[in-house]
Design a protein that fits this description.
The chain is mostly beta strands. The chain has a single domain, classed as Beta-galactosidase, Chain A, domain 5. A 10-stranded antiparallel beta sheet has the order 1-12-13-14-15-28-24-23-18-21. It has a 5-stranded antiparallel beta sheet with strand order 2-3-4-5-6, with no helix packed on it. It has a 5-stranded antiparallel beta sheet with strand order 20-19-22-25-26, with no helix packed on it. A hairpin with a 4-residue loop joins strand 14 and strand 15. The two termini are about 35 Å apart. The N terminus is likely disordered. The structure holds beta-D-glucopyranose. Beta-D-glucopyranose binds next to strand 25 and strand 26. Beta-D-glucopyranose (BGC) binds next to strand 25 and strand 26.
Length: about 375
C-alpha cells in the first residue's frame, strides 16, 4: 500500500469522519454501506469482544470479530443474485476458543512454518514454540489469531472500515521487538473484502502477516470441482514436514501447473511426491509479478454457484491449501461437519521458512521501516 493512501485515511480522520471508540460513539450512516456491531462473547480472561458487520451498497456482508481478527462470515451473491456465506467457521465465539484450524484468522507474527522453530537474526538465535510436527506454525501457541485487537470503526468515501490494532510485545511468542500492528478491513464497491496490514517495530524482527479464511464458493460439499487459476511459473517444493527445500521448481508438466484454470480435484490424487507430502495441495506458489506490487494471485470459479473469487495482493507468494487436514470433527455453521477438503485457503504471504532461506525475499523488518501488505478477495459471478 502506498503512503498517500494512508494519508487519505489520516485526512479523513482529521476532518472528523473517524468514529473512534466504537463502543461509545454513535455511527452516522456513511455515504455508502453500513457497519454495525454486537457483543460476540468473552475470552477466557473475561474480555468482551464484538462482532462487526460490514455491508456494502450491493448488500455484500462481512462479519469480523476483534478476537483474532476472525472473519466469521462473508456473504456474496451467486449467479442468481442469492447471497450465501462462502467461508467456513462457527456461529459462536466459544467454538473458536475450543478448537479451530485457524478458521477466518488473522495470522501473525509469522504466517506458515519456521523450521524447527528456530531462526537467526543479526547473529542471535531465536527459539519459537514448536506447534506443528517439528516446526513452528502461524505465529505460535498464542498467535495474532488468539489475541484481542482494539477496534475502531470509521466511515470513508468508499464505505465503512474496521480498524484493529494490536501491540505485540518484545519477546512475545519468542519474536524480538515490540511490533505495532494495524489491520483494516473494508468492503469495496466492487465486492472485495479488502485487508490492509501495517506494522512497525522497535528492534529488528521478522514479519509475515496473512489471512486464513477457508472458502467454499458453493457453500456446501467438497471443493474439488472449483476451478483454480494461479499465475505462477514456479512453486517452492517442500520436505515431508512441509518446509521448503529452497528450490523454485517450474510447475510445467506437474500437478502444480494452474496457469490455465483447472479443477482442484483433477490431479490432486496423482502419484506425486509433493502431493503426498502435503496430503494434497499445501504449497507456496511464486506468483509472476514484481515484489511489492498489487496484482492477481489467484482466480477461483465454482461452476455450481457461478461464484468467482479473485485474490489480489502485494505479497510475493501464495499458500494454496486444499483443506487436507479437515476431518469432520469441527462442526461448523448450520451444523455442517467440515470434512476432508470441504474448504480451501488462499493465503498471500512471503514464502514459508523465509527467515532461514537467504535466497527467499526478506521478511526482516527494521526500526524506521513500515511493513505493508494488502490482500483483496474480490467476488463476482460467471454465468
Ligand atoms: C497450512 C496447513 C495447515 C493449515 C491450518 C495452512 O496455512 O499450510 O498446512 O494445516 O494452515 O493449520
Amino acid at each position: 500500500m502506498k503512503t498517500n493512501q494512508w494519508l487519505g485515511i489520516l485526512a479523513a480522520a482529521l476532518s472528523g469522519v473517524l468514529l473512534a471508540g466504537c463502543q461509545s460513539t454513535p455511527s452516522p450512516t456513511p455515504a455508502k454501506g453500513q457497519i454495525s456491531h454486537r457483543p460476540f462473547g468473552r475470552t477466557p480472561d473475561g474480555t468482551a469482544v464484538d462482532l462487526f458487520t460490514l455491508r456494502n451498497a450491493n448488500g455484500v456482508e462481512a462479519g469480523i470479530c476483534n478476537y483474532g481478527g476472525l472473519v466469521i462470515f462473508l456473504k456474496v451473491p451467486d449467479r442468481h443474485g442469492r447471497l450465501g456465506d462462502v467461508t467456513l467457521g462457527y456461529d459462536k465465539l466459544e467454538d473458536y476458543l475450543k478448537d479451530s484450524p485457524y478458521f477466518g484468522a488473522l495470522i501473525g507474527r509469522y504466517g506458515n512454518r519456521i523450521a524447527k522453530g528456530k531462526f537467526t537474526l543479526n547473529g542471535q538465535e531465536y527459539t519459537l514454540a514448536v506447534n506443528n510436527g517439528p516446526n513452528a506454525l502461524h505465529g505460535g501457541l498464542k498467535g495474532f489469531d488468539k489475541v484481542v485487537w482494539q477496534p475502531t470503526i470509521r466511515a470513508t468515501r468508499e464505505g465503512p472500515e474496521l480498524e484493529l490494532n494490536y501491540v505485540s510485545r518484545d519477546g512475545e511468542e519468542g519474536y524480538p521487538g515490540t511490533l505495532r500492528v494495524t489491520t483494516i478491513y473494508s468492503l469495496t464497491p466492487d465486492n472485495a473484502l479488502k485487508i490492509q496490514y501495517r506494522a512497525t517495530t522497535d528492534k529488528d524482527t521478522v514479519v509475515n502477516l496473512t489471512h486464513h479464511s477457508y472458502f467454499n464458493l458453493a457453500g456446501q460439499g467438497d471443493i474439488l470441482n472449483h476451478q483454480v487459476m494461479l499465475p505462477a511459473d514456479t512453486f517452492t517444493p517442500v520436505d515431508r514436514t512441509l518446509i521448503p527445500t529452497g528450490e523454485l521448481r517450474p510447475v510445467a508438466g506437474t500437478p502444480f501447473d494452474f496457469r490455465t484454470p483447472t479443477a482442484i480435484g483433477a490431479r490432486i490424487g496423482q502419484d506425486d511426491e509433493q502431493l503426498k507430502f502435503g496430503g494434497g495441495y499445501d504449497h507456496n506458489w511464486v506468483i509472476n509479478k514484481p515484489l511489492g506490487q498489487l496484482g492477481l494471485m489467484a482466480r477461483v470459479y465454482d461452476p455450481a454457484s457461478g461464484r468467482v473469487m479473485e485474490v489480489l495482493s502485494t505479497e510475493p507468494g501464495l499458500q494454496f491449501y486444499s483443506g487436507n487436514f479437515l476431518d469432520g470433527k469441527n462442526i461448523g455453521k448450520g451444523g455442517w461437519a467440515y470434512k476432508f477438503r470441504n474448504g480451501f485457503c488462499m493465503e498471500p504471504q512471503h514464502y514459508p521458512n523465509s527467515p532461514n532461506q537467504p535466497n527467499f525475499p526478506s521478511v526482516v523488518l527494521k526500526p524506521g521501516q513500515v511493513y505493508h501488505n494488502t490482500i483483496l478477495y474480490r467476488f463476482s459471478v460467471q454465468k
